[in-house]
Amino acid sequence: MARTVTLASLRTWARQLSATEGDPNITDAELTALANRHLTEVYDALVDAGPPEYYAATTTITTVAGTTLYALPADFRTLLDVYAQESTFSLRLVHPMRGGERGKFRSPTGAWTCTVEYIPVPPTLVNAGDTFDGVSGWEELIANLMARDVMVKREQDPSIVLGSIGALQARIASRATGRDRGHPQYIADLDAQSSCFPWASTNSNRVAAYRLRAGNLEVYEALTGLP
Fold first, then answer.
1. 119-135: per-residue pLDDT in tens?
2. End-to-end alpha-carbon separation of the chain, Å?
3. pTM assigned to the model
4. pLDDT band at 141 (very low <50, low <70, confident <90, very high)
5. Which listed residue, 101, 118, 156, 178, has the most CB atoms within 10 A of its CB?
6. Is residue 88 part of a domain?
């Protein structure tokens, strides 16, 4: 279940931690900038702690005959998986093209649909009611980092929040192996899987491989193994 915090709450929290509730020199605009700066830091830590799919988004790409290059979403950060849509209810995992294998593939020859799962960039908080999902109270780290910067600017001793920052960062790191217990303990043999192209007819989705290049997704069919 999501646990969201608003930008207004983060600003109030940072003011309370730094004891600057009545300081007119600490503006909402400054605190908003600090919130967004540290939100990205905490977001990256949470994605690294896993499972990354918690923040995942999905988009679809329909290939055009003779076209290899397709634009990724504007909010793209990290690719998770690419699937060839075989039917309304059937997806087949597409594996990344290995180095030196470009000669085994060709541009798509038809309109094939692919589902792309990816991690988007973190949200940018603009309005007071904009929210961030802190998952399990980790939004507290954002507020403490904001308060630290405010205290340093005011030449106050930030040690009171530094201890909290260290504890919260350690807490996120300690959760890296415990947030998703559903994955297997062993690595799958992708070499065996990527060498097979199990299409049954010319109507099957022929997408066989992909690669990321220059901020775009390249999609390919295989030269061999096709009906």
1. 999 999 999 999 998 88
2. 46
3. 0.80
4. very high
5. 118
6. no
